[in-house]
Amino acid sequence: MASTSASASSSSHPWPVEPSPPVAYLSRKALPIKRHDAEPLTREDVQFDLLHHIFSDKSAVFTNPTPGGNPIPGKAAKVTFPELYVSALYNSSKCSKVLREKMVETPAFAIELAKISLLTNVGRINTTMAFFPEMKTALRTYHPVPSLQKTDGNAQDAPRIKNCLKAALLPSEMKTAPPSSPDEILERRRAGQRPPTTIVNLVFVLANHAAPLASVHFDGVLNFLDLFLPHKDLASADRSRAFLWLAYHYLESADGENPFDDDYSRRNPGKAPFLHKMTEHEMETENVDTAEEIAWGKRMSNQRNAFLQKLVNSTEEEKKAKTGIRQYVPANKNPLRRPKQFGQRQEASRDEGAFMYYVPQPSAASLHESTKRPPLQLQSHPHAHLQNRHAIFPSVSRTRPRTMLQQAWHIVNTTDPLADSDEDIETADEHVLLDYTRRVEVLSHLQGTFGRP
Fold first, then answer.
1. CB 213 within 8 A of CB 205
2. Source organism's superkingdom (predicted)?
3. Which three-class secondary structure state does DSSP give residue 205?
4. CA distance to 71, 106, 108, 168, per residue, from 92 (Å)
5. Which comes out higher in pLDDT, residue 222 or 3?
């Protein structure tokens, strides 16, 4: 019976059971916001209430790494989290001068930029997103963020924000690599370096080590990345408190009292504050878009669609304008003269432009007629092509021949001195050909006279 039961159990599961995905695997897979081009990012997408609680905290408990390089002058050694994060962006080597001036002139814009940067910091916004409708590259998709673009519509794009974040380093980290693991950050802090790294680099490290830290600071199922994902049952205020607790734990002190502690974290050292579950009524009141934000998002989406349509139409018009361009060639007023040098030709094109005239395509009858003509028989004389000039071009007028002196004087007055005299012989008139023939005869005579032994 035992063998029968064993065989029955094995037949019911012919394939081995797949292990459950590791902690934070599902969180990282669902982490980036995925929306179509011109689709607005709602408050639910960006978790607006979570960001609001984080950047509204007034606890000045974080060490200011750059007291003299703060966008808000006169700040003390201890700053709040919003001031700490904005200062990190402001002092980044990749932060442009225009962006710095905008952050100083409009502090509300600095907070909005910091919120979008924090979402980029954790990987919620990937580098394929842009936040201005006039973006042309096909590698980006435009997305208005109504809740975070109330002071300035141009919030850069995700690649520029990512570069700014990567360059947000401490002065001591300019020559050496910043810490890349939670243990390295704690070692530097225990060694007396405070802060041991920037808040931006800390967020990168916590996001990259979300799986192993899930059992250290949470219950083993929840992890750092889950704090930024839409959770229907976890309050935004509790998640923001857990995030600030982690920031203080690694940047300031991991042993003493944490200003963001609650009763649960005090009873369980090393654990983040407890996350309460919301009621249905509380869930309905979080991350609700306002009517003004919905209208603005639709207006910006329409503006983006109109911009793309205009771009497509202009591209099609350019293609139509280019059709048949090979049927036009530049006119040459004097075919006997060589075109000017590059610099001269470029200067002339700037002033008057090149005239284009239409060249009709040869008909089938003319092509057939040309194939009937017998091939031209040239004489065996080495200069026969000069003597048979009138046989090839019978339309050339026969005028009174010039003397060699008259032809030389004519060339001096009518020919470009920089032109090559041996170029375009086949297009020359009978005077030029006669002059060439006379020169060849003189050279042959001289060769025969002085070349004899």
1. no
2. Eukaryota
3. helix
4. 12, 18, 19, 4
5. 222
Q: How far apart are the first and last CA of the chain?
A: 126
β-bridge pairing 356-358 and 78-79? unpaired
Burial-class residue 291 by CB neighbours within 10 Å (0-12, 13-18, 19+).
exposed
For residue 79, give the nearest of 263, 256, 240, 247 by alpha carbon: 247
φ, ψ for residue 144, nearest 5 deg = -75, 145
With 0-12 / 13-18 / 19 or more C-beta atoms within 10 angstroms meaning exposed / middle / buried, residue 179 is buried
Residue with tokens 């179509």, as numbered in its chain: 36
Q: Is the pLDDT of residue 118 over 60?
A: yes
- CA–CA distance, 416 with 293 (Å, rounded to integer): 71
Collapsing DSSP to helix, strand or coil, 46 comes out as: helix
Q: What is the pLDDT of residues 337-353, one digit of tens each?
A: 444 444 444 434 343 34
> Which DSSP category does 145 fall into?
-
State the sign of the Cα–Cα–Cα–Cα dihedral 133, 134, 138, 140.
negative
Strand partners, 163: none
pTM: 0.65
pLDDT in the model for residue 12:
40
Q: Report the alpha-carbon distance of residue 249 to residue 227 in Å, rounded.
A: 16
- Smallest CA-to-CA distance from 261 within 282, 250, 245, 281 is with 245
Q: Which of 72, 108, 77 shows the shortest CA–CA distance to 91?
A: 72
For tokens 């902690």, name the residue: 23
Report pLDDT digits (tens) over 28-57.
567 899 999 999 999 999 999 999 999 999
Task: Quick: pLDDT tens for 226-281.
Answer: 999 997 789 999 999 999 999 999 999 988 899 999 999 999 999 999 999 999 89
* pLDDT score of 203 more than 50: yes
